[in-house]
Structure formats: structure tokens, C-alpha cells
From TrEMBL:
Coiled coil: none annotated. The chain crosses the membrane at residues 47-68, 116-134, 140-163, 175-195, 207-227, 402-427, 439-460, 466-486. GO terms for biological process: export across plasma membrane. Residues 49-488 form the Major facilitator superfamily (MFS) profile domain. The keyword Transmembrane helix applies. Residues 1-24 are annotated as: Disordered. This is MFS general substrate transporter. Keywords: Glycoprotein, Membrane, Transmembrane, Transmembrane helix, Transport.
Length: 497
């Protein structure tokens, strides 16, 4: 893809041959860049685009977690064991990790773009929900197959939303936008069990898929009407018109070119992409470090979510199923606080770095600007995990355990926002590929750990289980420090080859 902001360019799509000249221009661009100059979208339009992408991203974890409370009911309806129904959860997680590998290449391609992939994913999700709602109870194989299609449809939107933010947001404002965008994904995982429990308990398991059908269809309609194409290889900074077939029906957010704002800027030259474009990212050591540390943090979140119900039933037997479902809202509150808070702090840190560059010269230290707050996030997360496990073990007040759950989720969101923002800074123009790589690592690691966490919990108890998880975090954090120390060197070496 052509050079976005901060890359070595003289004109859109033209690479400078003189490294010294390119470096000077890069520093000049970084210092003089105004946030509003990165794209033609006004702030309120950017926020609405972020809101639309966040809404779409919510369906991946929502479709997964809303299903959990209905597993016993579905097992009874299909006259099979819970273990066999759990296979539908396993295949969902596998497709959740693998499907973005295909969609992300299309989303980064000039021949397709972001908007068609959003619509295709939501349409596939809605159609799979129709099939699931009408699946005969003697067709277990169809249930498994349709769950695969459901995951393939909804899981990829999270990865694509990262690319959308990279299209419209300059580095100095990406933190807050990414933090808010990730709210949808995380909040969906928290409210899913509550919604699923209510629907399955009152109206039966098919009601879950009717709900997902209605919600995904509404989201599809909103994207169809309002979401503009943002891929910079197609629309440049937003001032160029997308092909007619790739425009919103109501161009409220994508009408800059209609208003005479097109000033002749050419779109960035497209970079060759493919369905396995994200695989190339794993050849870079700094990317592997960031992806692994982020996946470890997210695995901690998965462990809390999947063990909450059995742990709370054992520790607090007076709680009803509905009350336990409501306990998931503590994690939702952690998402709401952690994502925008860390995003705002990232933007402040970036502005501080740019101010230093203006005073002292040099260039923005991306790793320093993004990772400077990581010791606080990792330190609190490690301490909270161990405390949470022992509080549940000894049946400490449910309010205390929910507070610890809130802080654990809050810190997880902070770590995720830091990691994702740094990856977007390191690989401009490859937002969807970055999101796909991030998604596959955390989903596959989470699937492996979740498959054994219950056995570990039953063997050594919740106290030692979460202590072991906190030790894992302690052993992982030096990898963050390694990226902080040597990341700039690795990035410079990558650009020179």
C-alpha cells in the first residue's frame, strides 16, 4: 500500500530514494502533522464511524457468550451430552481465530475495501442465525456446521475495525478511537451470558438465534445506510469518491467529496494483499512479542469469564442463576472504564513525545510513547488475578470479588489498547492484517487454555489456579520490556531492508 502518514514519502505513492532525505521528511511530517489534516472527516463523523465499527465488532463475542447459558438446554433438546454440545463452542472459537485471515486480505485490497467486507460478514452472520433458529433437533451435524458459518461471519469484523480506525485517525488520536472501538467487542462478551440466560430461560434456546438475527440485521441496515468506504487506497484521505457500488445509501458520513472538498489528492498506491497476508507479520520479532503478550493478557480475561459461573455457585450458594448472570456486568463496567481511559492516556503520551521532538529534535519514539504506562497495567493485573482467586476460594464478600473482576477486566482492556495501537503504528496501511494476526493468536491461545482451565481448577483449587496465572503474567512481562528496549531498532532494520 502507498505510504500513510509517517512513512517515507515525497508524494502519495512515491518512495524517496535518499534515506537521509526520507528520514528528514518523515520527522518533518511527524512534527507538523495536524490531526485534522490526516483525513477530511470532521471529529463528529469520525466518532460516528467508530461507533458503527464498534457496534459491528460486538457480534463476535456476543454470539459466542450468549450461547453459553443455553448449552444444557440445547443438549437436552438434541438428546445428546453437554460434551458434544461443547464441540460447537470449540469449532466456533477455532473459526473465530482463523476466519479473519481470509477477510482481512480482502478488506486491505483496493479491489474490495472495508465496507463490502463489513456487509458480507454481517449478512453471513444473519443468514447463519436463520439456519440455527430452524435447525431440527435431530440434525446435530447441522448445528455444528452453522456455528462454523456464524463464527466465520462475525469474528472478522473486529480485525477490520482496526483497519478502519487506521484509515481515519492520525497516530495522535488513535488511542482513544481504538479504545472506544474495542468497547463493543469486550462489552458483548460481558452482556452475552446475561442476555442468553434470560432468553433461554423464558423463551427457549431458539430465541437466542432470533435475537442475534434481529440485532445483526439491524446492524447490517445501519452499515448499509451510513458506513462509508475508508480504505486509503480507494478514497485517499476521504476526499475521493469510492466506486458507486461501494458508497453508503445515505452519504451523511462519506459526502466530503460531494461538497467540493476533493483537491486532487490521489489515493495511496495499493500494496499487494492476499488471504494469508497476515502470516508475513509473524516473521518480525517485535510483532511476535506484542501479539504473544497481548494474547496472554486476554487469556486471563477468558479464564475469569469461563470459570465465573461454577466458581460463584460453589463460593456463594445463595446466588441464583439470574444473579450470577448479572455478575458478568462487573466485567462490562471494566471494559467501559478501561478502554477509553487507556486510549486517552495513549494520546496524551503521544502528544508529549511530539512536544519533546519539537524541543530536542529526533523522531517520535513509538515504543516509548505507547508502552510507558504498561508497568502499571501489568502490575495491577498480576496482583488482582491472585487476589481474585483467593477471595473466591475463601468466599470473601461477593462485592469484593466483583470489584477485583472489574479491575482485572479494566487492566486487560488497557493492555489490549496499548498493544493494538502500537501494532497499527508499526504497520500503517495493514490494519486488517494486524487485527487478523492479533485475533488468531489470542483466540487460539485462549481456546487451548480454556480447554484445560476447569481441570486445573478442580485439581488445585481457584486460589492456586489464579496464582499460577498471575505468575504466568510475571514471566511474560519481560517480553514487553524487550520490545520497549529494542523495538525501535527492529523497526528501523525492517524499513532498511
Amino acid at each position: 500500500m502507498g505510504a500513510p502518514l509517517g512513512e517515507k514519502v515525497s508524494k502519495p505513492g512515491r518512495v524517496l530514494s535518499d534515506p537521509q532525505q526520507a528520514g528528514n521528511l518523515e520527522r518533518s511530517l511527524t512534527e507538523s502533522t495536524a490531526i485534522l489534516g490526516y483525513s477530511v472527516y470532521e471529529p463528529w463523523k469520525k466518532w460516528l464511524i467508530v461507533a458503527l465499527t464498534s457496534l459491528a465488532a460486538m457480534f463476535s463475542p456476543l454470539s459466542s457468550n450468549v450461547y453459553f447459558p443455553a448449552i444444557p438446554v440445547i443438549a437436552t433438546a438434541f438428546s445428546t451430552s453437554i460434551e458434544r454440545i461443547n464441540i460447537t463452542v470449540t469449532v466456533y472459537m477455532l473459526l473465530q481465530g482463523l476466519s479473519p485471515a481470509v477477510w482481512s486480505g480482502l478488506a486491505d485490497s483496493r479491489l474490495c475495501g472495508r465496507r463490502p467486507v463489513y456487509l458480507a460478514c454481517l449478512a453471513l452472520l444473519a443468514l447463519s442465525c436463520v439456519g440455527l433458529a430452524f435447525t431440527p433437533v435431530d440434525a446435530y451435524w447441522l448445528l455444528v456446521l452453522l456455528r462454523c458459518f456464524q463464527a466465520a461471519g462475525c469474528a472478522s469484523v473486529i480485525a477490520i475495525s482496526s483497519g478502519t480506525i487506521m484509515d481515519i485517525a492520525a497516530p495522535g488520536e488513535r488511542g482513544i478511537f481504538l479504545g472506544v472501538s474495542s468497547l463493543g467487542a469486550m462489552f458483548g462478551s460481558c452482556i452475552g451470558p446475561v442476555i442468553g440466560g434470560v432468553l433461554a430461560g423464558r423463551y427457549g434456546w431458539r430465541a437466542i438465534f432470533y435475537f442475534l438475527l434481529a440485532a445483526s440485521a439491524l446492524c447490517f441496515l445501519l452499515e448499509l445506510l451510513f458506513l462509508p468506504e475508508t480504505l486509503r487506497a480507494i478514497v485517499g484521505d476521504g476526499s475521493l469518491p469510492a466506486p458507486r457500488w461501494n458508497r453508503p445509501l445515505l452519504p451523511v458520513l462519506g459526502q466530503a467529496w460531494r461538497e467540493g472538498m476533493h483537491d486532487g489528492k490521489s489515493s495511496e498506491l495499493p500494496r499487494r494483499t492476499g488471504p494469508l497476508d497476515f502470516v508475513k507479520l509473524f516473521t518480525h520479532i517485535d510483532v511476535c512479542l506484542i501479539l504473544w503478550t497481548n494474547a496472554v493478557s486476554f487469556t486471563m480475561f477468558y479464564c475469569i469469564q469461563t470459570t465465573l459461573s461454577p466458581l460463584f455457585l460453589a463460593a456463594y450458594p445463595s446466588l441464583t442463576e439470574t444473579e450470577i448472570g448479572l455478575c458478568y456486568l462487573a466485567s462490562g463496567a471494566g471494559c467501559i472504564v478501561g478502554a477509553p481511559l487507556s486510549g486517552r492516556l495513549l494520546d496524551i503520551s503521544w502528544a508529549r513525545e511530539e512536544a519533546r521532538v519539537k524541543r530536542e529534535g529526533g523522531h517520535v519514539r513509538k515504543e516509548h510513547a505507547r508502552l510507558s504506562s504498561s508497568p502499571i497495567y501489568w502490575g495491577l493485573n498480576t496482583a488482582v488475578l491472585a487476589a481474585y482467586g483467593w477471595c473466591v476460594r475463601f468466599g470473601v464478600s461477593v462485592g469484593v470479588t466483583l470489584l477485583l473482576q472489574f479491575f482485572a477486566t479494566c487492566m486487560t482492556m488497557c493492555i489490549f489498547t496499548v498493544s493494538q495501537t502500537l501494532l497499527m503504528d508499526l504497520f500503517p496501511g495493514r490494519g486488517s492484517a494486524v487485527g487478523a494476526a492479533n485475533n488468531i493468536v489470542r483466540c487460539l491461545l485462549g481456546a487451548v487454555v480454556i480447554s484445560v482451565i476447569d481441570f486445573v481448577r478442580l485439581a488445585i483449587g481457584p486460589g492456586w489456579t489464579f496464582t499460577a496465572l498471575s505468575v504466568w503474567c510475571v514471566l511474560t512481562y519481560p517480553l514487553v520490556l524487550l520490545e520497549w528496549r529494542y523495538g525501535t531498532h527492529w523497526a528501523a532494520k525492517r524499513k532498511s531492508t
